[in-house]
Amino acid sequence: MRKSTFVALAGIAAVSVALTGCGRADTGAEPEGSGAAPEAGFAADATIGVALPDRTSENWVLAGDLFTNGLEEAGFTGNVQYAGSSNSVGDQQQQIQSMISAGAEVIIIGAADTAQLATQLEAADAADITVIAYDRLIQDSELVDYYVAFDNFHVGELQAQSLLEGLEAQHGDVDTWNIELFSGSADDSNSAVFFDGAMSVLQPKIDDGTLNIVSGQTTVQQTATEDWAAENAQNRMDTILQSSYEGQDLHGVLSPNDNLARAILTSVQGAGRDVPVVTGQDSEVESVQSIVAGVQYSTIYKDTRALVAASIEMAQALQAGEEPTTTGTQDNGAFEVPSNLLEPVIVTQENAAEAYADNEDLAPLTEG
Ligand code: BGC
């Protein structure tokens, strides 16, 4: 949509009086890059496209149903599509293209690859369609209008804090904790953000010798898990245990999500070792059960219902010709994208019942 070009310009020339008359910049009171007001709304039953990646974690599975039902309830014509796992990037590119051809007013994108949508964003812009990046920030383009997600840097910080807390609780008598780091898929811009958030907490502890990364693999590239695939994490953990841990204990593992956490635990337990402190993310059913049983140490609760609701609210605001709610901006390499970031919650055995109290699927898992 053209207004995103305006947002980018506003970032460069926020003080320029030449911008008066263009949406909210003329109030002079808005933070830089907080978004331009849409020129007008659109039909109440307009088509809203939702392009989701392949189902690499339960949150994506949940999101599809929530979008389908939520868009219908809001009176829109929803068009929700998933990319398939064998050709996720190509599938998604094609799906977005057909949403554009079908006359969608807004396209909400959970990118399969956050760097491979340039052509589709150009086409959406030419058709004056608003693009909302969902959960994963599409990179290096000024044609992303809004971003709605949980605060992913904070997710990483919380994971790292819980890792340290678990190490203290379970291995308080050990001087140096041996740990390993895992990160997500390199084609997902979230992976580096989670990792950077975690390293902002862990690096000082590596520097002062509290933590020892025995494999020596400390960068986001070295620790990446292609396609977020469990088998890749399990294989990497197997290899590290064989090559670096003979005669040594493994005390903890930073895992970026639950699916990989369970794969890492499978590897460690398969090697006949004690269960280390392992972090996670997504509050997947099996991981919540594992946390309650005292195996996986922590997860992150990013309530998918809240994220989908926030996205649909953005579409409703646009439909009404109003400015959607944003909490700030996020840099996507091209500009500061107006963003609505929600707060993630860390969950351990201790607070699981409280954290999931209002979630009818997860709360029962914490009872008894
Ligand atoms: C999401 C995580 C998810 C991962 C793999 C990330 O972009 O933010 O919640 O675990 O993708 O699906």
UniProtKB/TrEMBL annotation:
<protein>
    <submittedName>
        <fullName>Sugar ABC transporter substrate-binding protein</fullName>
    </submittedName>
</protein>
<dbReference type="InterPro" id="IPR028082">
    <property type="entry name" value="Peripla_BP_I"/>
</dbReference>
<feature type="signal peptide">
    <location>
        <begin position="1"/>
        <end position="20"/>
    </location>
</feature>
<dbReference type="GO" id="GO:0030246">
    <property type="term" value="F:carbohydrate binding"/>
</dbReference>
<dbReference type="Pfam" id="PF13407">
    <property type="entry name" value="Peripla_BP_4"/>
</dbReference>
<keyword id="KW-0732">Signal</keyword>
<dbReference type="GO" id="GO:0030288">
    <property type="term" value="C:outer membrane-bounded periplasmic space"/>
</dbReference>
<dbReference type="InterPro" id="IPR050555">
    <property type="entry name" value="Bact_Solute-Bind_Prot2"/>
</dbReference>
<feature type="domain" description="Periplasmic binding protein">
    <location>
        <begin position="48"/>
        <end position="323"/>
    </location>
</feature>
<dbReference type="InterPro" id="IPR025997">
    <property type="entry name" value="SBP_2_dom"/>
</dbReference>
